[in-house]
Write a structure and sequence with these properties.
The complex is a heterodimer of chains A (223) and B (495). Chain A has 223 residues and is an alpha/beta fold. Chain A has a single domain, classed as Rossmann fold. Helices cover 34% and strands 28% of the residues of chain A. Chain A contains seven helices and ten strands. Chain A has a six-stranded mixed beta sheet. Chain B has a domain of 219 residues. Chain B is built from twelve helices and 17 strands. The two termini of chain B are 29 Å apart. The structure holds adenosine-5'-triphosphate (ATP) and magnesium ion. Magnesium ion (MG) binds next to helix 1 of chain A. Chain B: Keywords: Cell membrane, Membrane, Transmembrane, Transmembrane helix. Chain B: Its main location: membrane. Chain B: GO terms for molecular function: transmembrane transporter activity. Chain B: It is a multi-pass membrane protein. Chain B: It comes from Agromyces tardus.
Chain lengths: 223, 495
């Protein structure tokens, strides 16, 4: 469960200060599927960075379970990312020189899992996203949808509590978008994940239990 | 994971890997070749010096020849023949005389200097030698009294009257003179550990021994013995005295030259040359190489009239193409290697930085999924190190091939060692007056040395060391860049 209390984030650029998040107070219960919508530059990615322990807020507090993300040192945040949080990105962000299998294994690297178990879990994760037969392919040999499936397998192989996705279907055609959403929704349902999806796409947002809208750094609830 | 990732990166980014590795390889090969050649040149210099000064000589003490003062007649030794010397029945004159004088360009000094040297702290061994030249003058002259009706006593006198150079014993008034000279080195038979005889090995017979002091025995340079048609058991005439040849020696120096043609006991050399208690050189071995400077200073203080030279001073006396090669290698070669090496390192650093910049999102993603900073930096540094090592391995191969090519060409370098007692070949020339005044000519010896660039552990260590150094520098700078990347970079729009 996420608890955000008066979270603000400002970026200082030369003379002017950009307020990307303005006094955001909200809770996200464990196991909820939340969609975040809003215009470009509204602060969606910034909010996701806060939830993902990638950055600390300028003011306010944010906690994930017992962990105070706003005040932990970098090393501890990295540890939380490694164990509890999975990411899926719009650009897939696979390592171009590594195979699908190896890309999935990178998520287990910081956990110090022995090579044999790592390999076996990565294979299982690829099978769960329907890519068991593509383990040896490098990203350029895979379609966009397949690459995003590899990215989802990488995010889930460590069995996190939270899955954060920034425009996961933004680079995909409609049919593939629906396939990926079906996959994410299925995994969310099966594993009891907290799933937060940033999206421009209303079709994607409609599937969520809860929809948040963010404009100018201000978050509002939507139906 | 580390090695899988490393392998995939290097294989997946071949162009970058190749450019960095080729740059490093060329630089490392160049450094290796320059290093090997300069070692070769140094070896060649050392062997030229070794043949002259012997093995293990750290310092030498000698006295510069003082040029004769104005108006003073150079006492170069002269041959004086009495009016009736060597007159034969047919009226022509057969003359032969042999003189032993101090070597050209050499001044003698009192042998007590040896005691002074031995008393100095840090001197492990010292021995004194007397470098001499034996000149045998022999010739035949017609009966001038018959031809000219006067009773002229012909004299062959230093530098003033020269006999006609041509002619020969043609019985028509011509004269023929042979001047045969060889170098003689008087040395202490007891002190073989330091001095010119330390760089020789016995070819035949025996060397000079303790009991040889005062004996008329000689050891010959094997090459000289061959050219003079002499062997162990024969006798050789030195200053009119007959010496028994007890042994022959060959130089162990690579140019194969010994310090002199003939080696005899010091005391005998002194008495025959009339230079009792006099020596020309003292060879000094220091207790260790780091005391050489202090020993040199002490020697200079104790022997103000003499010149003290260290091996490095002596190295600078080696001139000729060997000297040129030495200068070229130590200047141009050094700077060229430094420049190429700097360029290669710079290329490696720039490409690594560029690579890290290009992979901003990749490293951001890895950090976002929980990779520690240290792990990411280690990956970048590991890649650079391996690129450096690939370059190092390639450079090692290219360098070894380059050194092999140098050795296959085996360039010969001429060297001239100035002011050294050196073996002069038997000189035979007809007639001609000569005045070998001390200081009139500096003895200079030309030697041909084949350059051999050795492949040493040092050369290989340099290649590996530079490869690691280059890899580490590039890796450290690339890693530093990677460390500064924020994990939030992973969310940067794809743009
Ligand atoms: N690192 C940064 N430095 C400076 N300003 C930033 C930085 N990251 C975001 N911003 C600014 O903060 C605001 C919110 O950005 P954010 O990326 O959260 O928007 P977004 O809603 O994700 O937009 P999009 O739909 O285009 O992805 C923008 O005005 C952006 O310019
Ligand atoms: Mg965004």
């Amino acid at each position: 469960m996420y608890t955000l209390d008066n979270v603000s984030k400002t970026y200082k650029q030369k003379q002017r200060t950009v307020t990307a998040l303005r006094d955001v107070t909200l809770t996200i219960p464990s196991g909820q599927l939340v969609a975040i919508q809003g215009p470009t530059g509204g602060g969606k990615s910034t909010l996701l960075q806060m939830l993902g322990a990638l950055d600390r807020p300028s003011s306010g507090t944010i906690s994930l379970g017992d962990a105070e993300l706003s005040h932990l040192p970098d090393g501890k945040l990295g540890r939380i990312r490694a164990t509890e949080i999975g990411f899926v990105f719009q650009g897939f962000n696979l390592i171009p020189t590594l195979t699908a299998q190896e890309n999935v294994e990178t998520a287990l690297e910081p956990l110090g899992i022995p090579a044999a178990e790592r390999r076996q879990r990565a294979t299982a994760a690829l099978e769960s996203v329907g890519l068991g037969d593509r383990a040896g392919h490098v990203p350029t040999e895979l379609s966009g949808g397949q690459q995003q499936r590899v990215a989802i397998a990488r995010a889930l192989v460590k069995e996190p509590d939270v899955l954060l996705a920034d425009e996961p279907t933004g680079n995909l055609d409609e049919q593939t978008r629906d396939e990926i959403m079906d996959l994410l929704e299925g995994l969310w349902r099966d594993r009891g994940l907290t799933l937060v999806i940033v999206t421009h796409d209303s079709a994607v947002a409609k599937r969520a239990e809860r929809r948040l809208h963010i404009t100018g750094g201000v978050v509002t609830e939507r139906g | 994971m580390f090695f899988t990732y490393l392998r995939r990166e290097l294989a997946g980014r071949r162009r970058q890997t190749a450019i960095i590795a080729i740059g490093m390889a060329l630089a490392i090969a160049l450094v290796m070749i320059v290093n090997a050649v300069s070692t070769g040149v140094r070896d060649a210099q050392a062997s030229v010096l070794e043949s002259v000064y012997g093995v293990g000589t750290d310092l030498t003490v000698s006295q510069d020849a003082t040029p004769p003062a104005e108006g003073e007649r150079p006492d170069g030794g002269r041959f004086e023949f009495g009016a009736d010397d060597g007159r034969t029945a047919d009226g022509s004159t057969q003359l032969a005389q042999s003189r032993l004088t101090a070597g050209m360009g050499q001044s003698t000094f009192d042998a007590s200097a040896l005691d002074t040297v031995q008393d100095i702290d840090g001197v492990a061994a010292a021995s004194a030698t007397l470098s001499l030249t034996n000149v045998t003058f022999s010739g035949e002259m017609p009966d001038f009294s018959a031809a000219q009706g006067t009773d002229g006593a012909p004299t062959a006198e230093g530098g003033t009257t020269g006999a006609p150079p041509a002619g020969g014993a043609d019985g028509a008034g011509g004269s023929a003179f042979d001047v045969d000279s060889f170098t003689v080195l008087g040395l202490d038979p007891a002190a073989e550990s330091v001095g010119p005889l330390s760089a020789v090995e016995l070819a035949d017979g025996r060397g000079l021994e303790l009991g040889d002091a005062g004996q008329h025995v000689a050891v010959l340079d094997a090459d000289y013995a061959t050219s003079a048609d002499l062997a162990v058991g024969d006798t050789i005439d030195i200053a009119g005295t007959s010496f028994e040849i007890v042994g022959t020696v060959t130089s162990t120096a690579s140019d194969g030259q010994s310090a002199a043609n003939v080696f005899i006991p010091l005391d005998v050399a002194q008495s025959l040359s009339g230079l009792d208690g006099q020596v020309t050189d003292i060879y000094v071995q220091a207790a260790s190489s780091d005391v050489i400077p202090s020993v040199q200073a002490d020697l200079e203080a104790a022997l103000p009239d003499q010149t003290v030279n260290t091996q490095s001073d002596l190295a600078s006396t080696v001139s000729g193409s060997l000297g040129t090669a030495s200068t070229l290698i130590s200047n141009l070669g050094l700077w060229l290697s430094v420049a190429v090496l700097a360029a290669a390192f710079l290329i490696a650093i720039l490409f690594t930085i560029q690579g890290v910049t290009r992979r901003t999102r990749e490293f951001g993603t890895l950090k976002a999924i929980g990779w520690s900073n240290r792990r990411v930096v280690g990956q970048v540094a590991g890649e650079s190190l391996v690129q450096g090592l690939i370059g190092g391995a390639a450079g090692l191969v290219v360098g070894l091939v380059g050194i092999a090519v140098v050795n296959a060409i085996a360039p010969t370098l001429g060297s001239t060692t100035a002011t050294t007692p050196q073996a002069a070949g038997p000189a035979g020339f007809a007639g001609g007056g000569f005045a070998g005044g001390p200081g009139a000519a500096q003895a200079a010896t030309a030697t041909e040395v084949t350059l051999n660039a050795p492949i040493t552990v040092e050369v290989v260590a340099i290649a590996i060391g530079l490869a690691i150094l280059g890899g580490l520098i590039a890796g450290a700078i690339g890693g530093w860049r990677a460390a500064r990347l924020r994990p939030a970079e992973a969310l940067r729009s794809v743009a």
